[in-house]
Design goal:
- This protein is an alpha/beta fold.
- It folds into 2 domains: 185 residues, Response regulator (Rossmann fold, 3-Layer(aba) Sandwich), CATH 3.40.50; 140 residues, Arc Repressor Mutant, subunit A, CATH 1.10.10.
- The protein is 45% helix and 12% strand.
- The protein has 13 helices and 11 strands.
- The longest helix has 23 residues.
């Protein structure tokens, strides 16, 4: 059956269906290989898209059969777990997650996990190892970009790099064009044509925050969860929970007067949210922080990992529930935010003296 659309390098047409449904032949052992673990239309679309960027990719495998399939697989460059719509806890209880990591280590493969907000906490807790990449409720362009970069990485790993002296700029242009073509491909495969109002709106997450933020009593707060009273003047005290929430609300109001896409970087919003949670004696899960960021979940997740790598955020695994991961500000980051707030308050900024 002929595919309706094809992608490949400029000047080269690769049918997306070329390697669907057949294993990589022995003569193709140097070809990049991928396996999609999932079910339904989206998993099939991922397999076809992976084929479109040069991976040898067979039909998707359902999670319950994935380990048996991997036991018979000698080599793999990319493993795509599409957990959207699956009960993440079931994957953990049946040992699928641990088994996947064993095979990833054995084959030195790249693991990519695609999930929704409901599954991000348990899957992050179970599969965040090494170079595992996570996409949370991704846009088609996010998936396309990841596949193109994974294909490039696998090519370098195999030692089959282009030695024609092609400039880095030209290569980046080719990758960008490949991402655009692959995005259109995935949209057609899945029948997804989102309108601007459907993608990334924080309103669809209304009510989830309180169910995913777990109270905790940090050692520097009394049992009431409120900061201890101080004899310091108001100008010298740390910002209160109410002050920080007022700042967050003020920042949210920007969207009422200016285009929302002008404020795509969520780092400061997440920092303020974590600082407010700290003053209230609360812990914030990864999914809750993604919601608070008011950007697409995959973008928020990427920033969470970046800020963790920078030492601004700290990841805390819940000792009582292995399916949950909390994010907190590091001590140095919290001190910096407090110092900023005091400076703003003294100089007549948004944190006005006397605010409660």
């Amino acid at each position: 059956m002929r595919s309706d659309f094809e992608v490949g390098r400029p000047g080269e047409r690769i049918p997306l269906m070329a390697s669907i449904g057949k294993p990589v032949a022995p003569a193709e052992t140097n070809r990049k290989t991928a396996l999609v673990i999932g079910a339904g239309t989206r998993a099939c679309a991922l397999a076809r898209a992976a084929s479109g960027v040069g991976f040898g990719c067979t039909e998707p495998e359902e999670p319950r059969h994935a380990l048996a399939r991997l036991d018979k697989t000698a080599r793999l460059d990319l493993m795509l777990l599409d957990a959207r719509g699956f009960e993440a806890a079931a994957l953990l209880e049946t040992g699928v997650a641990a088994g996947l990591l064993d095979h990833v280590r054995r084959m030195q493969a790249r693991l990519v996990v695609i999930t929704d907000l409901a599954g991000i906490d348990p899957l992050l807790a179970a599969l965040d190892e090494g170079e595992t990449a996570f996409l949370c409720e991704p846009e088609d362009a996010d998936i396309a970009a990841l596949l193109v970069l994974a294909a490039t990485r696998a090519t370098h790993r195999s030692g089959f790099c282009d030695s024609t002296g092609q400039s880095e700029k030209m290569r980046l242009e080719e990758l960008s064009e490949e991402v655009r073509r692959l995005t259109a491909t995935i949209e057609r495969l899945t029948g997804r044509h989102r309108t601007a109002s459907e993608g990334g709106s924080p309103d669809r997450f209304a009510g989830l925050r309180t169910t995913r933020t777990v109270p905790s009593m940090p050692v520097h707060f009394p049992a009431s969860g409120a900061p201890a009273r101080s004899t310091q003047s108001l100008d010298e005290t740390a910002p209160s929970h109410a002050e920080l929430r007022a700042l967050v609300r003020a920042r949210r109001m920007r969207d009422q007067f200016l285009p929302a896409d002008l404020f795509g970087e969520p780092a400061w919003d997440m920092i303020l949210d974590l600082m407010a949670a700290r003053t209230a004696g609360q812990r914030v899960s990864v999914s809750s922080l993604c919601i608070a960021a008011a950007v697409p979940p995959t973008t928020a997740l990427r920033w969470i990992r970046h800020l963790t790598d920078r030492g601004i955020f700290i990841r805390i695994d819940d000792p009582m529930d292995r399916r949950r991961v909390f994010i907190e500000l590091s001590e140095s980051a919290a001190e910096a935010v407090s110092a900023w707030a005091l400076s703003v308050r003294k100089k007549g900024g948004l944190l006005a003296p006397g605010f409660h």
